[in-house]
Every structure is written in C-alpha cells, then in structure tokens.
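Re: that backbone. Tokens:
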C-alpha cells in the first residue's frame, strides 16, 4: 500500500478512537462545502458525510 493509503488507514483508526472529534471535522467540512457551493449540492454532501460517519462509527467502511 502506498503512502496515501497508509495515511488514510491511520486517519480511520484515529477517527474510530475519537468519534466525537471526527464528527466535528466531518460537520465542518460539510458546512464549508455547502457554503462554497451555495448549498447547490446539499443532498450530496449530507449523503457523503453520513457515509463517512458510518465508516468510523459502525465499521461500515470498506477495507482494501
């Protein structure tokens, strides 16, 4: 696995260990994307944020 993949796995493990902090980061990123696009993609950012949250909350992410 390359360096980016290693960094991604490390970030996932940190998010699983600190889900409340990870939630704040995901919410901030979602809010920033919505603000910059004028909420044009609000439904898509909501879906993406929910998917990310499930990946570290429920272990629902895919493993490579």
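Recovered sequence:
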């Amino acid at each position: 696995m390359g360096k980016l993949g290693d960094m991604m796995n490390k970030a996932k493990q940190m998010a699983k260990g600190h889900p409340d902090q990870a939630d704040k980061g995901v919410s901030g990123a979602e809010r920033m994307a919505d603000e910059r696009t004028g909420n044009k993609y609000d439904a898509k950012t909501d879906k993406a944020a929910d998917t990310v949250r499930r990946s570290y909350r429920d272990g629902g992410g895919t493993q490579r």
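The two ends are 9 Å apart (CA to CA). Residues 13 and 23 are 14 Å apart (CA to CA).
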